[in-house]
Amino acid sequence: MNETAFSTDSQLAARHRWGRMFEWACAIATWMCLVILAIMLIGVVIKGWPHLNFAFLTHFDSQIEPETAGIKAGLWGSFWLIALTALFSIPVGIGAAVYLEEYAKPNWLTRLIQLNILNLAGVPSVVYGILGVTVFGHMFGLFGDWPREPVWHLPFGDKVLTGALTLSLLILPVVIISTQEALRSIPASLRHSSLALGATQWQTIRYQVLPASLPGILTGIILALSRAVGESAPLIMIGALTYVSSTPGNIGSVSDFFTKPHGIVEAPFDRFTAMPLVIYNWASQPDDIYQSLSAAGIVVLLLVLLLMNTTAVVVRQRFQNWIRW
Amino acid sequence: MTSATLSAAERPSLQKRWSLTTLKEQCIRLVLFCCALLSVATTAGIILVLFSETVLFFSQVSVFSFFGDTVWQPQSQDNPRFGIWPLACGTFLVAGIAGLIGMPLGLLSALYLSEYASERSRSYLKPTLEVLAGIPSIVYGYFALVFLTPYVLQPIFENVFGIEVGGFNVLSAGIVVGIMIVPTISSLSEDVLRSVPRGLREAGLALGSTKFDVSVRIVLPAALSGIMAAFLLALSRAVGETMAVTIAAGSQPDLSLNVFRSIETMTAYIVMVSLGEASVGSIEYRSLYVVAMSLFLITLAMNIVARFILRRYRNVYQ
């Protein structure tokens, strides 16, 4: 063994040691994020455990007896908010994506719209909140004062409808981008064969392209809506309340949909709160019982999100088995 | 042959004719076009709303005091002062800490996922990392306030270093926002790293490089511009982050670099005024729009630069 060979060997060993250390550093960084996620979830469940029972879902918030407080108002508020948001954002989002992918010619206007959607996706949610409160809440002051009671008149004020319209604008870029990706994954041959058989462009889209891309579109929509469920800043901006002891339209259970049908019409114009707002309200109180209530609220919120995400995964896998190219 | 006997007028024309079907097609096309145009209208609405109120604000407060003053006290009755720097300082302090935490973590996990991890572990690590992005920001704020500050930061800094840590502090907010932006950085950077051509890696390995040399000296520099874009996009998200910061960092507009005390960011100020009773049209209410305008312009600039870099980068390898 001469001197140089020995030093090359040890240098090589050192380089490999470095390499292994770096690999470990990368692995630790990745796993650390997951460990933090786990700590966060476990911590919240432990903290909220005393309040995690069925009564928590069916009771209103209470300042006199915080032991019996529940998240009913927030749960129903979030339900109405998301139902209306879905109603507004799904047709418009799919429509815009279909236009951009199927109809638009590659000219300056299309490029402008496309660039604009990408930039809108990066706008902070508080800015959407400001837009919502000015355009839907006050309507620029054109129609007089902010309404205090659940009534049908302009402007919408701090009612469910304002919140849903604001959230719709917020998630619209996400819906459009994910729908575009779903449409892009449909092979051109499908469109060509439909057109060759004499179908018009709309018939091709309606009967071939949209059904084939449905799983992708649905997944994107559910993920966008689950973002809307967790959003709180724009709702605070539009003046949604953090402490309410009624549900929109006084519908507090599934059977109320049938016994109080007029409530369905009144709900969009009613005052509301949402799950993240109730959680925020509890979290900003110093007492320990409120911290614990807040944790229980977070668990419910996360369970709702988990349910939505699982639905997205199931939808994608179920439909993917149907369609084979 | 029947077609030969048909006169020119009777022969079916291939030219487009107006019929109920074509009319319907055109209507649908128009409706869909309006849907697409709504996004442009949203941007126009944001700019219009913010700009008109900003102009009204600057008719009452001079631009020089807005950019020159170092005190932000809009609620004060006798001497309201509107210097943006305390809020800007809070925002950039939180974003800076978030970057210090999120950028190394995100980049290392992107390198791990693209260079080291097996296909199998990648297939479950990546979706789990995405879960971090799907958790609402209010949960991160709660985590910072109820767990991170009392159980981690206060024991460490008070007992070991003897520094007093407030219940609301910038550090906890920065850390959780840093964790929040990890998925953004790691998934964008991973896409960029994976799009580096395989040939570059093989050439490096063939010349006797170790895996570390290939990853850090070949792949990383090749993907650098794309990673910069990922950093920018993530930082713009940190700047616009609202609820986590409002809950964890509190609302004390201060021009200081002390990370153990409460501070107010631009987003937290907007939320705080909305929760309060500022009447529409008052100067305090208008200050909301000015702060939102600043926020919008900062994040827009970061986004545009990042998209520009990403597009340039794609052109290099395709």
How does this model look, in words?
The complex is a heterodimer of chains A (325) and B (318). Chain A is 71% helix and 0% strand. Chain A has 325 residues and is mainly α. Chain A has 2 domains: 3-50; 57-322, MetI-like (MetI-like fold, Orthogonal Bundle), CATH 1.10.3720.10. The termini of chain A are far apart. Chain B is an all-alpha fold. Chain B has one domain (87-317): MetI-like fold (Orthogonal Bundle), CATH 1.10.3720.10. In chain B, strands 1-2 form a two-stranded antiparallel sheet. In chain B, helix 6 (137-161) crosses helix 7 and helix 11 crosses helix 12 (266-275). The longest helix of chain B is centred in the N-terminal third of the chain and has 41 residues, at 20-60. Classes of the chains: A mainly alpha (325), B mainly alpha (318). Chains A and B meet through helix 1, helix 3, helix 4, helix 5 and helix 6 of A and helix 2, helix 4, helix 5, helix 6 and helix 7 of B.
Which key phrases capture this entry?
heterodimer; A: 325 residues; mainly alpha; MetI-like fold; 2 domains; 13 helices; 71% helix; globular; B: 318 residues; 75% helix; flat
